[in-house]
Amino acid sequence: MRRGVHPALFYSMFVLLLGGNALQGTALLMAPDIARLLGGQNEQIVTAYEDRLAQMRVEIDRLQSRNYAQAGDINLQLQELSAQQEALLEQHQLVRALVTKADELGLAALGGVDEQILYAPTTANGNPDVAATAATVVQMMDETQQAMSDIASAATERTASIVGELSKIGIEVDLPRTALSGVGGPLLAAEGSSDQTSPSLEDANAVMEALLQYKAARDSLALAPVHMPIVGNFRQSSGYGNRKDPFTGGRAFHSGLDFAAPTGTTVLSAGEGVVTFAGLRSGYGKVVEVEHGNGLVTRYAHLSAFLSQKGQKVQTGTPIAKVGSTGRSTGPHLHFEMHRADKSVDPKPFLDTGKRILSMLN
């Protein structure tokens, strides 16, 4: 038979537990914060906690401000790079226009900007890559500069070649003056950090001036009588200067170049000009004369037919007559003369100059 807990022992244990709880409650009441809170000092406690929270908010705001500043710097960098890209895109279009103009003038297509680099790269998460974007901007600037430099160099070099070659035969090229550059004004302190005129725009203006100079040189080449007056099946049968006369056998002066060719072969104007004579001359038979300016006149003789008339404006290569054997001639050929200030000069240096220039241009 089991025995239960004695009532006296049970009540004794209950009294001990109750007393322990009372002592613990008294200790809690003696705790400083709780005692002040229960004693009516709760406002001080709340104020202290609020001060601590305010300090924490200040620290959080400072950290957030730093993050915002860093994010702002990145956004500012991206905005600046985006503005530079837009400007470079416009310059790219300008370079394209200059290249097209150069092609029209016979210059090979030179340089250009790789269109694959015209757009800002992104990171793996799709955000703009600031460093890579900056690198593409630098690459675009370099390629734009190189393209314009190539065009200007080619145009300037060829202009100098044409002018130099024509000057050797006494033909002066009238090149356009460069753009007016007069500037002035009071000396004032600079404002801002950037100039109104970008270096690329100045480079583009320089390229355009170089192309205009080259165009003027090419136009002078078209005016100059330096082009072959005959094409097809022909050969030079006699040169300029003293030779054995084909009729008398004695020494005589020959005032032009002879090109033997079949009767009816087309004769072309050696340069741009105006037909000043189309008719008969003693010893020459049927003759066409073209005035080219600069005191230069070309004469085409021993013709079989006229394809032009006095007063007609002709271009380089315009058909003006046909080969024949009229006048003092032993057979069908073109007698080609060059006159400067009413005095005959050797046509060969003129034709050789034309061949060299055309070879260079082609």
TrEMBL record:
Transmembrane segments: none annotated. InterPro entries: Cell_wall_metabolism_enzyme (IPR050570), Dup_hybrid_motif (IPR011055), M23ase_b-sheet_dom (IPR016047). GO terms for molecular function: metalloendopeptidase activity. Pfam families: Peptidase_M23 (PF01551). Residues 253-347 form the M23ase beta-sheet core domain. Signal peptide: none annotated. Keywords: Hydrolase. The keyword Plastid does not apply. CDD domains: M23_peptidase (cd12797). This is Murein DD-endopeptidase MepM/ murein hydrolase activator NlpD. It comes from Devosia subaequoris.
